[in-house]
């Protein structure tokens, strides 16, 4: 019985981890130190950065309700470095090193995009408050 009670927390931990989406897991392991658990920009490293981390829950709100999926992808994968400099924002190359999935860029053309990149951007869309009212790829 003691062994069962000792294993019980591990069973619950395993269940909660399995319930996490791929995007949420990627967020937890890559973004929480700066943006915080809830994405509000209050992570444990936030105070040490030269530029305060953005509140990731209000991306769509700051764009009048529009969710800019491609823009967010470009920030994470580093393609927007020339136009949107963020000194403390790293490029997440590990999001690019995985399997590819088809993605509609908004013009009906399907392109292959790293699956992890799609998943983390979907998670960021899920935490928008308020929810987006319109979408651009």
Please provide a brief summary of the model.
The protein has 137 residues and is α+β, with helices and mostly antiparallel strands.
How would you describe this structure in keywords?
137 residues; alpha+beta; two-stranded parallel sheet; two-stranded antiparallel sheet; 41% helix; disordered N terminus
What can you see in these coordinates?
There is one protein chain. By secondary structure, the chain is α+β, with helices and mostly antiparallel strands. The protein has six helices and four strands. The protein has a two-stranded parallel sheet. α2 crosses α6 and α5 packs across α6 (115-126). The longest helix is centred in the first third of the chain and has 18 residues, at 2-19. It is globular and about 40 Å long. The model is unreliable at 1-13 (pLDDT under 50).
Major β-sheet annotation: 2 strands, parallel
Helical stretch count?
Answer: 6
Uncertain segments are: 1-13
Radius of gyration: 17 Å
Structural class based on helices, strands and sheet pairing: alpha+beta
Sequence-ordered SSE layout with sheet pairings:
Blueprint: H1 2-19, H2 22-30, H3 32-35, H4 59-62, E1 66-68, H5 69-77, E2 100-104, E3 110-114, H6 115-126, E4 134-136
Helix pairs in contact: 2-6, 5-6
């Amino acid at each position: 019985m003691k062994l069962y009670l000792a294993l019980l927390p591990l069973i619950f931990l395993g269940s909660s981890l399995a319930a996490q989406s791929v995007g949420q897991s990627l967020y937890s392991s890559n973004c929480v130190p700066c943006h915080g658990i809830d994405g509000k920009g209050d992570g444990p490293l936030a105070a040490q950065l030269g530029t305060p981390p953005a509140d990731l829950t209000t991306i769509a709100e700051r764009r009048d309700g529009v969710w800019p999926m491609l823009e967010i992808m470009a920030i994470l994968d580093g393609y927007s470095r020339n136009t949107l400099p963020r000194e403390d924002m790293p490029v997440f190359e590990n999001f690019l090193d995985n399997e590819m999935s088809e993605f509609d860029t908004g013009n009906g053309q399907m392109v292959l995009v790293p699956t992890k990149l799609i998943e983390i951007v979907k998670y960021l869309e899920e935490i928008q408050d308020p929810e987006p009212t319109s979408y651009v790829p």
